[in-house]
What we know:
Blueprint: H1 7-21, H2 34-45, H3 57-62, E1 71-73, E2 80-82, E3 85-88, E4 101-107, E5 110-117, E6 122-127, H4 130-133, H5 138-155, H6 163-171, H7 173-205, E7 224-225
Helix pairs in contact: 5-6, 5-7
Amino acid sequence: xxxxxxxxxxxxxxxxxxxxxxxxxxxxxxxxxxxxxxxxxxxxxxxxxxxxxxxxxxxxxxxxxxxxxxxxxxxxxxxxxxxxxxxxxxxxxxxxxxxxxxxxxxxxxxxxxxxxxxxxxxxxxxxxxxxxxxxxxxxxxxxxxxxxxxxxxxxxxxxxxxxxxxxxxxxxxxxxxxxxxxxxxxxxxxxxxxxxxxxxxxxxxxxxxxxxxxxxxxxxxxxxxxxxxxxxxxxxxxxxx
Length: 241
């Protein structure tokens, strides 16, 4: 039964149960519903909006997944390599950055971009074959890699994965046929994540901070570098190998 559920259907049912059923039924340990207990706690001890962690871009970056080591070495002229793909930013061009290990993060739903922690800030890095890898999920790349490795084993038995090989397969009609189901699931998952993230962000934006000297929950925190626009003609040209 449960293997027939879609992520959207599961999310809808769990949300209804958590917020409209469980939250409103009297709890034996509380003597009232969880919602009433929460409201009573706020009335008794007061609201503390200054303790809220804003669901902003900095929070998102710090909670993105990283590699097994958590860092990547800066390869001169190529950038950092994450999951077989090089990512580049002009911030990695500095001589003291070359061949150093920097903390990295990647977006599991967008292989076109990743992030490196450079000089105490997160810097957005652009991938090889950006136009093809943009918007592709980690799961889609894993399935594509497994398919390419399986095909290579049937012929030569040797397989070296490159971003170009991945991009060519992802852009092909054959790749679309093999990965069609995963792409549908990814679109559904992205929609739900956007819905959840938007709701949490709205809560932070709607919070009013009172009291002298109280920090602003949504005050700008310039600890990362994210370009508002991306010009393809400004991207570094990588050697195909």
